[in-house]
Design a protein that fits this description.
9 helices, 13-stranded mixed β-sheet, alpha+beta, elongated, 389 residues, Rossmann fold, 2 domains, 5-stranded parallel β-sheet
């Protein structure tokens, strides 16, 4: 495991190094990042129902920050420790596997943007997830270019690997439309508030109604162990690129503008007016696709099968996405932690569980060097190693 953790353990269940608290546990825990002190805990004070307060050195008093993201229900038994200068890891004892690891972000890019927007002290919660299903995929391209066919080929060959997010809309549901399946139907005021809080990757107003893709809807696909596919236009891709989502951006273009027009006409499904509108939109999208840094890969769909093979290569589908240990970890559940230590980006969790009178010792190691994502969505990329009972 390398050198021994450079921490001292005192009678107050607190690890310290040079007098600075690094790892602590209990009903309320205090962490220092720089000169700022953060208290996290299950407070009785209703004003602290968000579970966080910050000591403002300039005021010499505690203040209650604006708390964003998905907020955990804090237990009376948890561990917490700072990770770098921007976040705190919280480990909840006695929680289920999908509720054990949380991150309180205090100075991430998302938090800094929200501080500027709100003009006040902001922190944000993000749920930690073991493993990583793979980056979401943003696919754009003009109508008629064949991107729908390419996506269908992916879904057919890899039925358990990919999924689609469910969009939000403020319009009323139509007959036979089911909330959460066809759309997430919501109130305009609620969606506008979530947009303000940075919870949407992209959105647009269509016929006085809002439509958009929320970060939560994309994360829900990842929670199911699938890579999310977003089939959106170039304007939407720009919005997603500017967000915190770590995705692969792919643009599918025709071999020529004339070839695209031929494909649109051959479908025989649109009027001349509709064809002309699609061609005008296509011209604009083809020009915007050249924006530096917008798309990671440009595919020319001249030969469908060759284009599909190139798409799979860019998505790394020749590599195995299975991780036997991570799967076993999720099935076994998270062990109850009795002690925590930290060396660099490696965190050592030790536990002793009693089952039917037989005590078993477990040692679990978390690698936090490859964290991805974060508030207002999930923090993924946690890697776990060790013995599970």
């Amino acid at each position: 495991m390398g050198e021994a953790p450079a921490f001292l353990f005192d009678d107050l269940n607190r690890f310290s190094e040079n007098g600075i608290d690094l790892v602590c546990m209990g009903r309320k825990t205090t962490n220092f990042i720089g000169n700022t002190k953060y208290e996290i805990g299950d407070h009785d004070d209703s004003a602290l129902s968000n579970g966080v307060k910050v000591f403002d050195n300039s005021l010499g008093d505690w203040v209650y920050p604006t708390v964003l993201g998905t907020k955990p229900t804090l237990s009376s038994d948890h561990w917490s420790l700072p990770l770098g200068e921007d976040r705190i890891l919280v480990i909840k004892n006695g929680a289920t596997m999908d509720d054990s690891l949380w991150f309180l972000e205090v100075n991430t890019p998302y938090v800094r943007r929200q501080k500027n927007l709100w003009g006040t002290n902001v922190v944000a919660w993000s749920k930690g997830v073991i493993g990583y299903p793979g980056k979401p995929i943003v696919i754009s391209g003009p109508s008629g270019v064949g991107k729908g066919t390419l996506i269908a080929m992916l879904m057919k060959e890899f039925p358990s690997m990919f999924g689609f997010s469910v969009s939000h809309t403020t319009r009323a549901p139509r007959e036979n439309e089911i909330n959460g399946i066809h759309y997430h139907f919501t109130e305009r005021s609620s969606m506008e508030e979530d947009i303000k809080n940075g919870k949407f990757l992209e959105f647009a107003s269509v016929h006085s109604n809002l439509y958009g893709t929320s970060i939560e809807s994309v994360e829900a696909v990842g929670d199911a162990g699938k890579r999310c596919i977003l089939d959106i236009d170039v304007q939407g891709a720009k919005s997603v690129r500017a967000s915190s989502l770590d995705a692969v951006f792919i643009f599918v273009r025709p071999p020529s503008y004339e070839d695209l027009e031929k494909r649109l006409r051959s479908r025989g499904t649109e009027t001349e007016e509709q064809i002309q509108k699609r061609l005008r939109n296509a011209k604009g999208e083809l020009e915007q696709s050249r924006t530096p840094g917008l798309f990671d890969h440009i595919l020319v769909n001249d030969d469908l099968e060759a284009c599909y093979q190139t798409l799979k290569t860019h998505l790394g589908l020749h590599e195995s996405a299975d991780n036997t240990y991570q799967s076993a970890m999720k099935k076994a559940g998270f062990p109850r932690v009795n002690s925590v230590s930290k060396v660099g980006t490696t965190i050592f969790l030790n536990s002793s569980n009693a089952d039917l009178g037989n005590a078993s010792k477990n040692s679990l190691v978390l690698d936090v060097s490859l964290l991805k994502g974060g508030a207002p969505g999930r923090t993924r990329g946690l890697t776990a190693f060790g013995k599970l009972s």
